[in-house]
Amino acid sequence: MNNFNEELSILKQENERLRLEEEKYKTYFMMAKTGIALLDLESNFLSVNPAYIEMSGYTQKELQQTSCIELSIEEDVPRSVAVIKKVIKDGYVENYEKPVS
Hints:
Layout: H1 2-31, E1 37-39, E2 45-48, H2 50-56, H3 60-64, H4 77-90
Antiparallel strand pairs: 1-2
C-alpha cells in the first residue's frame, strides 16, 4: 500500500507541475504583443490571441470559421502553404508575416 501512496503522490505532483506550466503558457499566449495563431493541419484556425485579432481585424468567431489559406491574398497562397508544410515538418516557423484579405 505504501508504494501505491508514493506513486499517487508523484502523480499528483506531476499533475500540479503540468497545470502550472499550462497556466504559464496560456498567460504568455494571451499577453503577447505579437499575433499568435494556432492552426490545425488543414490551416483552420483553432485559437488566436488578442494581438492577432487586433492585427487581423477579424473576430475570434470569424477566424474559427475560416482558414489561414482562405484569408491569404492570392499571390501569397503558395508561400502560406509552404510555411504550413515547414511547420508540419519542423514543428515551428520563425518571423513569418503575411497580409490577409
